[in-house]
Amino acid sequence: MARSFTVVIVLLTIVCHQLMSTSAATNAENGWVDAHATFYGGRKGEETMQGACGYGSLFEQSYGLATAALSTALFNNGTTCGACYEIICVNAPQSCIKGARPIRVTATNWCPPNYRDGSWCNPPRKHFDLSLPIFLKIAKYKAGIVPVKYRRVMCPKKSGVKFQLAGNPYFLMVTVFNVGRVGVVVEVKVKGSKTGWIQMTRNWGQVWDTNTVLTGQSLSFLVATSDGKRLKFNNVAPSNWQFDKTYDGKINF
């Protein structure tokens, strides 16, 4: 009797482990979402610079060519600018690079819809328009468009958050880039050495603005990301800061 009971316990343990393994595998699979990917621009990626997120030279801003323009369904009016994704080519053996590892890209642009020709970027399609060099890491050039799976991932950064200042003495615009962890900024406040904290408004993408005159004052920033984390960047720009210059926040998320 005792031996039979022991056998039952062992069998139940094995079944439980199998169910847990199956559940874990299912959850891992569910972390990936179906989409499609194409490419734009040439092998040097000039056409992928700047774009709808407000970034400038992607090489100078550390993004390089590992970038993507998102379809409307993913772009979400620019609120996903800076997000990082892993993408892998699937279910197309004639088009996918065999054994290719997932690529990691940052959202830096928008792939606008074109309702006349049924564009792949039309809502509600989830689509990534990649730089050509990055596309070629997972798929063949002749494929043109491939089915992919993607998932959101953290954005690893080695240096501080950067603040690029633009505008004029009566209208300050700040582009926030090189943001770690989730990568997506949802709120920015600025503080001059002679003011309190001032709420900035999203102008477009990751460009934020204020009409407050802040020339001649050192600038600090308070930045919040989409995961609820907030960081204060004290005295990022000195009192003699200049427009069209980038200042290092020194720390990151």
Automatic annotation (TrEMBL):
<dbReference type="GO" id="GO:0016020">
    <property type="term" value="C:membrane"/>
</dbReference>
<feature type="domain" description="Expansin-like CBD">
    <location>
        <begin position="170"/>
        <end position="249"/>
    </location>
</feature>
<dbReference type="GO" id="GO:0005576">
    <property type="term" value="C:extracellular region"/>
</dbReference>
<comment type="function">
    <text>Causes loosening and extension of plant cell walls by disrupting non-covalent bonding between cellulose microfibrils and matrix glucans. No enzymatic activity has been found.</text>
</comment>
<keyword id="KW-0472">Membrane</keyword>
<dbReference type="InterPro" id="IPR002963">
    <property type="entry name" value="Expansin"/>
</dbReference>
<keyword id="KW-0964">Secreted</keyword>
<feature type="signal peptide">
    <location>
        <begin position="1"/>
        <end position="24"/>
    </location>
</feature>
<keyword id="KW-0732">Signal</keyword>
<keyword id="KW-0961">Cell wall biogenesis/degradation</keyword>
<comment type="similarity">
    <text>Belongs to the expansin family. Expansin A subfamily.</text>
</comment>
<dbReference type="Pfam" id="PF03330">
    <property type="entry name" value="DPBB_1"/>
</dbReference>
<dbReference type="InterPro" id="IPR007112">
    <property type="entry name" value="Expansin/allergen_DPBB_dom"/>
</dbReference>
<dbReference type="GO" id="GO:0009664">
    <property type="term" value="P:plant-type cell wall organization"/>
</dbReference>
<dbReference type="InterPro" id="IPR007118">
    <property type="entry name" value="Expan_Lol_pI"/>
</dbReference>
<dbReference type="InterPro" id="IPR036908">
    <property type="entry name" value="RlpA-like_sf"/>
</dbReference>
<protein>
    <recommendedName>
        <fullName>Expansin</fullName>
    </recommendedName>
</protein>
<dbReference type="InterPro" id="IPR009009">
    <property type="entry name" value="RlpA-like_DPBB"/>
</dbReference>
<dbReference type="Pfam" id="PF01357">
    <property type="entry name" value="Expansin_C"/>
</dbReference>
<dbReference type="InterPro" id="IPR036749">
    <property type="entry name" value="Expansin_CBD_sf"/>
</dbReference>
<dbReference type="InterPro" id="IPR007117">
    <property type="entry name" value="Expansin_CBD"/>
</dbReference>
<keyword id="KW-0134">Cell wall</keyword>
<feature type="domain" description="Expansin-like EG45">
    <location>
        <begin position="50"/>
        <end position="160"/>
    </location>
</feature>
<dbReference type="GO" id="GO:0009653">
    <property type="term" value="P:anatomical structure morphogenesis"/>
</dbReference>
